[in-house]
What we know:
CATH superfamily of the largest domain: Vaccinia Virus protein VP39
Number of strands: 7
Distance between the termini: 38 Å
Structural class: alpha/beta
CATH architecture of the largest domain: 3-Layer(aba) Sandwich
Number of helices: 12
Helix content: 25-40%
Amino acid sequence: xxxxxxxxxESIEALAIKSDGAYVDATFGGGGHSRxxxxxxxxxxxxxxxxxxxxxxxxxxxxxxxxxxxHNFRYLQRFxxxxxxxxxxxxxxxLGVSSHQLDxxxxxxxxxxxxxxxxxxxxxxxxxAADILNSYPAEELQRVLGEYGEVRNARSLAQKxxxxxxxxxxxxxxxxxxxxxxxxxxxxxRYLAQVFQALRIEVNDEMGALQEFLEAxxxxxxxxxxxxxxxxxxxxxRMVKNFLKTGNIHGEVVKDFFGNIERPFDLTIKGVxxxxxxxxxxxxxxxxxxxxxxxxx
Length: 297
């Protein structure tokens, strides 16, 4: 299976799909969410999907209502305009890495395999995880590991990477695991997952892309349109939470001339939705998912 859609029923319900509406699946992947959206659309409905990963091309849907954009979702507004679309009725984004990407050894996303340290979602991009490990100064490596992976000994690991690469460049997952092994703290798999997550986020500028996507979504949603986002990382979730409440990722309250707080969205879900015990048992990778949604005012 390429990817089992997470919180599928909940996300489709949150979109409140109109049969003749225009919708966006900003993270197409295996097409699981897209197929569910298309089931709710009538003949006049349209679905615009985005994904930068070449592997997603094998999952394209043969449907006249479906339009695929082989691009990062940060370019949402630009490519909708190319299709003559100024506003849409709903946008869905699932920010998780697909099961397919994690299970493809050559992509370098998982420490379960030995392969080149790649981790690029878009393989046309220049910077790989190996490039980061072999070129970033210790202070920058510490920032990446600490901020994006919440690695407890980020400073020690960063210094170790810089010391070791002077003797031998870090090129493969095996090279990196040998380097990391003496510094593992706590449960090994959890520690490695945090380290690899941090590198993946940096390689793909995931936080920068998310910010641009969120800002574009507010521009292209028509009043009453719904934004639904499923996040897995605490930083991502905080950005989404702040944006839905204030219209910016920092959560800075904006007031009008009269001192009234300007709210861009009506939160259609109070707090977050998380997977049921049943879903987590069937799909363990869903366990950290958090769904938030809001309707544009």
